[in-house]
Amino acid sequence: MFDMTKKMTLVGTVTTFEWTNPHSYIEIDVPDEQGAIKHWSIEMGSPSILQQSGWKFSSLKKGDKTTLIISPLKNGKPGGFLNTATLPDGRVLGNGPGQNPQ
Amino acid sequence: MKTILFCSIALLQLAPIALQAQSSANPPDLTGVWGVYRGGRGADPKLAPPPPSPLVLKPEYAKPYEARRALEAESNKRGEQLATTGAQCIPYGVPTMMSVAIYPVEFIQTPKQVTIISEAFSEVRRVYMGVPQAKLEDVAPGYYGRSVGRWDGDTLVVDTIGLKPSIGGYRGMPHSPEMRITERIRLVAPDYLHDQITIDDPVVLEKPVTYTLAYKRMPNYEMVEFVCDNNREYVDEKGVVRLQVHDK
After folding, report:
1. Is A47 inside any structural domain?
2. Which residues, at least 6 apart from B93, have a Cβ–Cβ distance to it below 8 Å?
3. If B93 and its partner were Cys, which of B28, B58, B167, B242 is the partner (CB 3.0–4.6 Å)?
4. How far is A6 from chain B (nearest CA, A)?
5. Under 8 Å CB-to-CB from B15, ≥6 apart: which residues?
6. B108 to each of A58, B24, B28, B111, B125, how far by Cα in Å?
7. Any idea what the CATH number is for the domain that residue A73 is in?
8. What single-letter DSSP state applies at residue B6?
């Protein structure tokens, strides 16, 4: 589903942070060089997995500026799998120490 | 002399029973949260799980099983995950729920019941202690079946029947309604637990298969809730898992 061999950087504004199962999601608006906004859905691990690498339900909120490194979807749609996120306080968090439930 | 000899033999015969009874009356307390322990380099071999026995299916089941495994491997190579029940938010059931990724399991032990909760999907097993197992025909096939337990010295022995064939088995093996699972659960060290799982299925398996899961105690860990209410992954017409993105 995701191309784990590729890494790309998204710099944008969080629209929602969903602390949910079976996966958490960061919804983010990313402007391109011309200023046009493209929306991305970024999949993460589950809350249990994420908290083991320092995440909390409140780590991100609507309006936060963040930089995400992701592996994109193979089908070219605007989605990806999180590698790391830079939080507004400067901390860089990963996507949990293990795998997802599937 | 004869009397003394007889008494000595009688005592020798009774001794193991007495020891067992004493031990079973004061079983170890398994209550607590347990995380997956895989051992790894430098780990004490007594704490790491021993290797599993071979999985040998009857020929009529082995062929389709191998074909499915090959298809999965091929699909994974392409980076496409074939649909699994887990990807569809369907719980795993017994025995898979005992080891899902790195999710912990919690044991709550009372004299009459041992309750086991897996964090992934919040699955719950109830092991009824010291009661007879039901007849297979009286157990409605389900995800957890019916489990009864007893103490064999320091080992909790759990017998489970009544698992529905549609739920995934060990390493994706097929199974029939006649599958029976015997678990021997014991502390191998104060904070390390082993669950030796033996699966017998006279319909599907040539011989029972045994594997062991190892856990390490997670003191003070509070289990995280897991309600699968935001599943954005779906299965396409080719049986491949896809992600639904929120386009604007």
Report:
1. yes
2. B123, B142, B143, B144, B163, B164, B167, B168
3. B167
4. 12
5. none
6. 31, 17, 12, 10, 10
7. 2.40.50.140
8. H
Alpha carbon distance B185, B72 (integer Å): 32
CB contact under 8 A, A77 and B245: yes
Could you give the domains of chain B? 23-243 (2.40.128.20)
* Contact criterion met (CB < 8 Å) for B102 and A99: yes
Q: Using CA atoms, how far apart are residues B8 and B170, in angstroms rounded to an integer?
A: 47
What domain count does chain A have?
1
Interchain CB distance below 8 Å, A47 and B224: yes
ipTM: 0.85
Domain that holds residue A81: 8-85
pTM (2 decimals)? 0.86
For residue B123, report the phi and psi dihedrals to the nearest 5 degrees: -75, 145
Give the whole-angstrom CA distance, residue B71 versus residue B117. Answer: 32
Q: A56-101 pLDDT, tens per residue? A: 999 999 999 999 999 999 999 999 999 999 999 999 999 987 433 3
Contact B129, B150 (CB under 8 A): yes
Q: Are B57 and B65 in contact (CB under 8 A)?
A: yes
Q: Is B105 helix (H, G, I), strand (E, B) or coil?
A: strand
Give the closest-approach CA distance of A67 to chain B in angstroms.
19
pLDDT, tens digit (0-9, with 9 covering 90-100), for B157-173: 999 999 999 998 899 99
| DSSP string of A66-89, one letter each residue | EEEEEEEBTT-SSEEEEEEEE-TT
Considering the domain boundaries, does residue A92 fall inside one? no
In sequence order, what are the beta bridge partners of B246? none
Cβ contacts of A1 on chain B, cutoff 8 Å: 79-81, 233, 240-243
B152 vs B247: CA distance, rounded Å? 58
Contact A30, A40 (CB under 8 A): yes
CB A91 within 8 A of CB B76: no
Report yes or no: B147 and B160 within 8 Å, Cβ to Cβ: yes
